[in-house]
Amino acid sequence: MNFSALSRLEQIISTSFTDKGTSTLERLQMYQASWKFIQESHYLGLGAGILPIKLDNYMYGFERLSDNYFAPHNYWLEAFANGGMIAILCITSFFSYYFYTSIRYWVKQACKAEASVPLLIGVAFVGASIALSSTIDKRHLAIGIGIGISILNIYFFKKRKCQTYDDC
Which of 2-11, 23-32, 98-107, 133-142 has the highest mean pLDDT? Predict the structure, then answer.
């Protein structure tokens, strides 16, 4: 391992999160406000799509006729705020099973590079969803997870030699 390359990578990551002027402070305020809303809802969730409206009111301090879309720039925090503990448990269960089947697929394929694609998609999703900037990013990540699920689905259907889901 080249430690100078690792320290340079750490520096790049650090500056990409901190050298953004006031947007970093605004993002931290949105994280804190989102967590406050989660606690106020007793971890049961605000309801689908309510967090951006509450963040908009919080960031400006009053209601307006045309609402802006304020997301907390964190998929997990937004899911927790909107859906509560139930949403987090469902998402955690889904990703646990996704990673389990991805690793199983990769191992069954003798650790081939192309068999690691679903696993890498999952890792990229988890990493990228921490600092999402827009709803478009969420759609792109969802497409990636869909591709990973499709790869796993094709493999497990071929393994069982099924033609349709009912045949298995």
Answer: 98-107
Q: Tell me the mean pLDDT in the region 143-168.
A: 78
Residue 85: its pLDDT value, please? 93
Quote the CA–CA distance of 61 and 70 in Å, as a whole number.
13
What pLDDT does residue 90 have?
Answer: 94
**Cα gap 128→122, rounded to integer Å:** 10
Counting Cβ atoms within 10 Å, is residue 72 exposed (0-12), middle (13-18) or buried (19+)? Answer: buried
Residue 91 has pLDDT above 90, yes or no: yes
Closest CA to 41 of 49, 56, 31, 51: 51
How many helices and strands (H and E) does the chain possess?
6, 0
Structure tokens at 133: 């900037």
Contact at 8 Å (CB) between 44 and 83? no
Residues across the chain: 168
